Amino acid sequence: EKVISQLGENFSLKDLGELHQFLGMEVHKTEKGLFLSQERYAQDLLSRLSMYNAKGCKSPMSTSCILSKNKSDSSIDGTLFRRIVGSLQYLTISRPEISYAVNKVSQYMSHPHEEHWKAIKRILKYISGSTHLGLEIAKSDNLSVVGFCDSDWAADLDDRRSTSGFCVYIGGNLVSWSSRKQASVSKSSAEAEYKSLAHVTSEVLWILSLLGELHFQSATKPSLEHHPQPPFSVNLVQSVKKEACLDLWHKRLGHCSYEIVKSVLKSCNQSFDLNTNVTLCSICVVSKIHKLPFNDSETEYTLPFELVHSDLWGPSPIKSKTSHLYYLNFVDQFTKFTWIFFLKQKFEVFDIFLHFKTMVETQFGFKIKNLQTDWGGEYRSLDPFLQSNGITHRVSCPYTPQQNGTAERKHRHITEMGLSLLNQSSLPLNHWDDAFATL
């Protein structure tokens, strides 16, 4: 009343009594404090979609649900989808438990598909069975600030960015929460966890600043709770002494070289014992072992098509718009020029090679002398034809793709560049053959 009277001296006010409902938010006074809910708003939303009597489910999203924008199922009405997602986002004001699920479906508002609509219906079914839930704000003299956070590392199949989630409590009351995609790709789960910690830290600092402006001071320092998986990602440095162990920091910094460890510790003004005996890390020995590289070939080719490398890529997990599942490449050793042909079935390799051989002889006036491939069955059917035309067929040894490295590296270049073009253009993955053909 004192605040209202002071405001009335400077502004035109009208006392409407105790607050019961405001912009779809219902406020109920209880013995413990206040209970905030959007029950009527949720019921109206379900009624508009004819799901008021829908059978409820126990969670807003299944743990096995993996959404993507590149699925080949049919598209749906984007206007209705966006309207429902907007309503669900408003419902998260008093229903923080659906924040993650709503965050996931809101990422596909531009081009929603059938699987995204099924995820929306799962959320609505959960709301149908829990319209009575809301937020309880209890009376408390405790103003301690506690934050919790977590991250979902690289769970997005489209851009491999992680999702950060946090919630902040004041005196046991939930006052702030968020579930949003991180701005950049995290190379490790530890990096994703630290980004999540940074998000909740900035939120806690803002809340402390707000409490300070309101002349409320927390009796204790704010605390952050974070339990990453696996737990050893934080336990390794819980008891670091002043003279830090190099072996400990070597493990904590991702098993980098000891010279890099020393450089990092010096730049951070962290003291360590220079006389520490550095032992060979057994984990590095097992994890970083690799085959010796093949020696470079000393054979020099002076004419085009003296040696042609070839390999078959596929099958693609996603069928292209033109029903292609494979592509066949031919790489000339002398010029390094590459030809790409798309296939629907593997048995088309023989016909495509005949077409390629005819094109080489007609357009360039050269003949193919050597063909280098792997031990694939699609190439074994070429042997009678190659022998009758005097073409030497060179094959790599089993389980040694390095011997056909030119074609293998070309595959990597084509797929990486093609997928980058698709991602930049926001095109679905079933256009992969169009992207590969431009390279």
Automatic annotation (TrEMBL):
It comes from Striga hermonthica (Purple witchweed). Signal peptide: none annotated. Residues 300-439 form the Integrase catalytic domain. GO terms for biological process: DNA integration. CDD domains: RNase_HI_RT_Ty1. This is Uncharacterized mitochondrial protein AtMg00810. Pfam families: gag_pre-integrs (PF13976), rve (PF00665). The lineage of its organism: Eukaryota, Viridiplantae, Streptophyta, Embryophyta, Tracheophyta. GO terms for molecular function: nucleic acid binding.
